[in-house]
Structures are given as C-alpha cells and as structure tokens.
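Hey Z.,

So I finally got round to the adenosine monophosphate thing we talked about over coffee. Here's the setup:
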Amino acid sequence: MFYPLTVMDFLDRAVTVYPDRTAVVDEPDQPAASWGDITYAELGRRAKAQAAALEEWQVPAGGRVAIVSQNSARMLASFYGVSGWGRVLVPINFRLSAAEVRYVIDHSGAEVMMVDPSLRHLVDEVGCKRSFVLGDDDQQIWGSTAEPRPWIGDEQATATINYTSGTTARPKGVQLTHRNNWLNAAVFGWQASVSDRDVYLHTLPMFHANGWGHPFAATAMGATHVVIRKIDGTEILRRIEKHGVTYLCAAPAVVTTVLDAAKTWPGDIPGSGRVRIIVAGAPPSTRTIARVRDELGWEFIQIYGLTETSPLLTMSRMRAEWDGLDPHQQAINLGRAGAPAVGVRLMVDDEGEVLARSNHNLASYWDSPEATAQAQAGDWFHTGDGGTFEDGYLTIADRKKDVIITGGENVSSIEVEDVLTSHPSVREVAVIGIPDEKWGELVTALVVLDSDEEPVDEPTLIAHCREYLAGYKCPKRIEFRDQLARTATGKLQKFKLRAEFWSGHDRQIN
Ligand code: AMP
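And the result:
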C-alpha cells in the first residue's frame, strides 16, 4: 500500500492520541492577545478553522499563504492550517524591510499575507491581495466553524517555501515538499530522541527553515511547544525552569547569550542534567561546547544543514565509544559538524565543496530553474560549504559561497554590495564577514569612494543601507580603502580581503 506522507499526519496523530495534552504554551508577552495554553484538540480545531477560512477566500490547493511573524502559537497553527490542506505556507523573516517582504510576496505569488501586530505597516506598504493582522483579525482567520474540504494528500506537493539569502542578489525561495518536511522531521526526531515526554522551547525562529522542522517533529510525538518571542538569555532560563523544558535549538550566538545569563543566575541552572540543546547555523567553538556541558549541565548536540536540506544533513552527538574520553576530547569530537543523518549521503568534491543527497533536499528553488539546476548539478546538492569528510564525520571549515552568517542568519554579500553601490559616492565595494565574538561574523564593508562625488562617512552609508535592507544585513562596520584587491580579470579577490581579519583562526568561518 502506498499512503502519501503529509504534514497533517503529525497533527492528526497528536489530536487522536493526546487530545487533552497541552500542545502549545503561547508567548504571554506579545502585542496580540496571547492564546495562552491550548490543547492538541484545540490546535487541531484552529488549524481546521484556518483551512476553512482559506477555502472561503478561494485560495486553491497549491496557493501561497505568507506569514510574517515572530514566533507565536498562531504561526505554529499555520503550519497545519495552511499546509495541512494542500496550500503552501511562506514563512517570512520578520526582520525584513517592507521592500524585501514585498519582493517575497510578489515572487512567491502569495495571495494572503498574515502579519504580527508589530508589523501592521506591512499591510499598506506591501499591498498583498488579502492581508490580515494576527490577533486583530483572529475571528476571520480562526473563527470559521465550516468543515473544510479534505485534501487528497500528495507527498510531492509543495508544503512550504522559505526564502533564504544566498549567492544571488535576491533571496531564493526554497520549495520543500510534504515528503521533504516529513522525512526531515522523522529523522531529526529519531536521532535527537524526541519523545512524548519532551517540552520543546522555540528559541529558533519558526520562519527559519520551518524552525528546523520542530513544528512537525515535536507535534508528531505529542510533545509540548513553548513559544518564546524574544531572545534573552535570562528569559530562556526562566522559561526552561517554569515549563520543564527538555530541549531547544539555537545558533551559537544564542548559546553565548544563555551562557552569559547563567553567570548571574541565582541557584541551580534550570534543566541541568535534563535539557539537550541542538546547535547549528555556524560552527560552535570547542570552548562553547565545553561550557554548555560544564556550566549548564546540558547535553550538547550539533547539527549541520541548510534551509535547502530541510535542514538536517549531519548530527554530532555523544556516542558510546567516547564515554571514556576526557571532556576536552569529547568537546573536540562534538565540534565536528557530525555524521550523516539516516538517509543522507555526503561527499566532498575535488574543490573541497560538500555535496549531499537526501530525501529532505529541496524539490527546487521557486520559479528559478537555473539556480535549481546549478545547485543540483550532477544530482548532488551543492552546499557551498567547504569541508572534509573523514571517518564518517563531516567538518565544515570554509565557505565557498559568498554568504556571511551573522547571529545564525544568512546575509548575501552581493545584496549588500548592490545597495552600497547604489549610493552615488561609492565607487567600489566588497562586503565580507569578519570574526566576531558575539555574532560569529560581522557584516563589514570595504568601500572605495568616488573622488568626484561628495565624500560620505560611515553612519551615512549605514543609514543608506537601512533604507533598503533588514537591520541585520546592514554593515556594522565600514572601512574606507584607496583600492580593493582584484584579479587580472577584474574579479574581487575576497579571500585576500578577508585574510587580514581572519589570520590566526583555524577555520575561515565563525
Ligand atoms: P541556512 O540555510 O540559513 O540555515 O544556512 C545554512 C548555512 O549555515 C550552511 O550552508 C552553513 O554555511 C551554515 N551552517 C549551518 N550549520 C552549520 C554548522 N554546524 N557548522 C558550520 N556551518 C553551519
């Protein structure tokens, strides 16, 4: 028998098996009225109501529905209310500027946009066909009592499109099917031992690679979701204590925030001996890993992957053979990106680029056949990361693509360069990432000014970027240069420009 894998399998199971269990503890402190604690039966009801509303608005199966929001129970429900009935959820980074959101809405062809109340200006500035403000418009989105038409599941249908900044000037839409999301969630849940005893804290933004698949994996097991809206180390510790959280995911910058907060936390660290933290987005340092284990008493797990791979490709977790090693060596071992997850094949090509095959690799980039063909040349997904694959373990040491990762979010150097060169006083520019203790990498622009134009200073150029780009993409530092290193053919030699900032580092990424 063939029975299609769809994300509704996860919620349907939780509603059937754990109807009275708390499904979601919503963020109490948010501009919309908090949903408080809701059960799986209620989450199922709200997802169904949302599907009925979309049907009333005549959004067909395959129609795109965008959401721009900080983490919230409403956003979690939308993974099911939208995708569970065959429509496509487009979760958008809430930090993007109105122009950037408009691009995603237009490019994806989204006919509905739901925004957090703090982003209500987007309703006018973006101009989507139908726009709603979460909270204000709850009755319209979640008030229907009609029975939506069931969707004949198709595992190859697109479930989500996540826009990610990469090597092109504009973000690309990563089209993930139900099958992609299903298998990522299943393998992730399996290897990270997600069970019905888990309480998952959503420190990771749900828009980012669908929260790495946790709206699916945790639901499937009937685990409880705890929503947190803002990243604050002390608040993370408080929520862990209050709700008995057992696991969370975080970029290294968030781990550092928690470690800092732990220094002044009175008494025992919440979740010590119980919590497992899954880290990815950038390589965590051996010291960070050791501190998580020593100072917090939490299990440290690293994964590696991309939005394009749903994201799980590898996992680094303690294994029996390492039990007898000293903690420092254990931390070194855990510092590798990890061993291939079940169903993932890896290889490193002659240029040192990591290639991957798996059932959670993207179907394609939305409406970008050329980018898709390039990324999947030779039937391998080209990660753009440089590394080595030895003894079953992958180590990421370098980035082949022109992408900066700051605080766990990708920034396309080209996108920032485009905006800077649109300023009349800028003649040439190179945008690079330089190592930074807090953010991992700091977006830095090396600028050559046009001597025929009005001179400009650093704050003016940063303000210019802020008009067009999300704050996290804007350079935090600008250095003025007389010229930039180029090859004989005029191509920027970014590795030379980066070298002065990265000397003394064993990896070329942070
Ligand atoms: P994104 O698609 O925004 O999730 O970004 C994916 C990129 O993050 C990868 O291509 C890597 O460059 C980086 N990345 C993710 N996990 C790790 C890791 N464990 N170690 C090093 N880099 C990572």
